[in-house]
Amino acid sequence: MSSSLHSGSRDRTSTTNLTPERAAETIKNVASSIREASSKIREMVRTIHQSGAIEEIAQAIQEASIATRDTAREISNTKTLEIVTLLGVRLRPQKKQRW
Q: Whole-model pTM?
């Protein structure tokens, strides 16, 4: 069984015949590269976690969300008051219902 395979990132324009031995070697090289990348990523995640960066970004996102919510409420309340004023409607305080 003979087929051609690009020789990877070394030279994308040339092709070589793929033998079972060459295929096995290529698979081993890929597996080795995956292990190396996995180890580097694991180390990077550990370092980022230990630095406190994850907690810091989570807190910043929470604070931004709260500020956005409060701003949206303020805009909504302002617009409601403007509409009521334009319509000349008097608002009566609503009684709190107990459930």
A: 0.46
